[in-house]
Amino acid sequence: MELVLYTNPMSRGRIARWMLEETGEPYRIEVIGYGAEMKGPQFRAINPMGKVPALTHGKTVVTECAGIIAYLADAFPQAGLLPETPEERGAYYRWMFFAAGPVEAAVTNRNLGIEVPADKRRMVGYDTYETVMDTLEALLSRTPYITGDRFTAADVYLGSQISWGLQFGTIDRRPAFADYAARVVKRPAWSRANDLDNALARDMAPPAGT
Fold it and tell me: Residue ranges of the domains in the chain?
């Protein structure tokens, strides 16, 4: 079955590309432009949300970065990116969905300048941005990777969030975060994916002076 990633190099599709490179499986890229193409009926037939990334594997369609990462880890277990013990499995799911939920929401709201009133914090599911950062710091101060000593697919997702957050200033620059990001971006698959997406972004850029 063919793997096709619908993406844009200026999007979270970079996370899915990294995961595909980690699997070592052949795949094809379909670049979807922002605006009319991404919101048009042809792409919405794949993802009604009109956003990238989206993955097709034969007739199977998967969207959302965490979903794509979890799906690929399950589909290609030979890549060794799945948890191996009950303890690893618990940490894998706990922190994968912590990243998809509280981290994503807290960082997005902070970046948008949204301050949740103290009496409404129970409604947002993450309390405060500082609580989320402190929780992450505690995790990454005691273990090199999300599930312990071994890199798993969960590190693709959280590693992407933290490395991007440090790059763009959307998360605190704490030593535990910087050390973790430095570990994950040493992965050969990360380098391959980053180089491919950077080249794709250059090809899509308008000529200088236009």
Answer: 3-79+190-204, 86-187
Token duo for residue 90? 């618990």
CB 43 within 8 A of CB 18: no
Nearest-angstrom CA–CA distance, 139 and 127: 17
Predicted confidence (pLDDT) per residue in 65-114, tens digit: 999 999 999 999 999 999 999 999 999 999 999 999 999 999 999 999 99
pLDDT tens figures, 185-207: 999 999 999 999 999 999 876 65
**How large is the greatest C-alpha to C-alpha distance in the chain, in angstroms?**
57
CATH of 86-187, one of 1.10.540.10, 3.90.226.10, 3.30.200.20, 1.20.1050.10: 1.20.1050.10
Which of 132, 178, 143 minimizes the C-alpha distance to 159? 178
CA 7 to chain centre: 13
The answer to whether the CB of 23 falls within 8 A of the CB of 72 is yes
DSSP β-ladder status, 28-31 and 3-7: parallel
Contact 30, 5 (CB under 8 A): yes
**Structure tokens, 146:** 């999300």
Domain 3-79+190-204 top-level CATH class: alpha beta
Phi, psi of 120 (to 5 degrees): -115, 0
Rounded Cα gap, residues 149 and 108, in angstroms: 30
